[in-house]
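Hi R.,

As promised on Friday, here is the backbone we talked about, encoded as structure tokens. Could you run it through your design pipeline when you get a chance and send me back a sequence?
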């Protein structure tokens, strides 16, 4: 059975990011996928301390809610990370998560080797800007740097014109694409591909 772990990096529950992620999960649930969803704003996640503890041990020196996240990621097939675009970047909540993913990688002669296998990465972004291409270089850059942690880019969903908290609830195209994506990933035979 496929396991999907999703992270909502928006402070708004049931807001635009959460709505799209939930639609992906609804599609996946239709095929009995195992689902875990975390609202990062509700979690106790401290910033990386740069102590390099994770270079020696397959863990982080900070004992906070990231310990739960590491355990969930270890046996996941798909990871979904969703964030609104704030000041041309991911939210602070999402950035904390990204910075703390370093224990997922081993460094051998300057090469990153995933400690816990490869997972497919889905990124979800919402932005007030009307054109989806405006931040695509940043989105691609972000996904590229997660590859060393074993998170290999699979798909990016972008919702534009997200001016209000509920903007995406009327964006039928984005929601339909999100649901179809959920159905698709829940039927993929990931474990046999690894």
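Update: got your reply. Pasting your designed sequence below so it's all in one thread:
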């Amino acid at each position: 059975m496929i396991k999907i772990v999703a992270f909502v990096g928006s402070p708004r529950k049931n807001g635009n990011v959460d709505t799209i992620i939930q639609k992906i999960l609804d599609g996946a649930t239709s095929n009995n996928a195992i689902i875990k969803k975390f609202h990062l704003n509700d979690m106790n996640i401290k910033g990386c301390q740069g102590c390099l503890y994770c270079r020696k041990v397959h863990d982080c020196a900070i004992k906070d809610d990231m310990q739960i996240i590491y355990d969930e990621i270890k046996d996941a097939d798909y990871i979904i990370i969703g964030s609104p675009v704030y000041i041309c970047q991911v939210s602070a909540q999402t950035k904390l998560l990204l910075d703390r993913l370093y224990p997922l990688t081993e460094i051998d002669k300057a090469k990153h080797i995933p400690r816990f296998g490869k997972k497919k990465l889905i990124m979800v972004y919402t932005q007030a800007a009307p054109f989806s291409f405006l931040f695509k270089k940043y989105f691609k850059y972000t996904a590229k740097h997660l590859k060393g942690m074993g998170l290999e880019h699979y798909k990016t969903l972008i919702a534009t014109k997200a001016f209000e908290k509920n903007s995406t609830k009327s964006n039928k195209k984005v929601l339909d694409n999100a649901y179809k994506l959920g159905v698709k990933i829940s039927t993929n035979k990931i474990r046999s591909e690894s």
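One thing I noticed while checking it: The chain has seven helices and seven strands.

Thanks again,
M.
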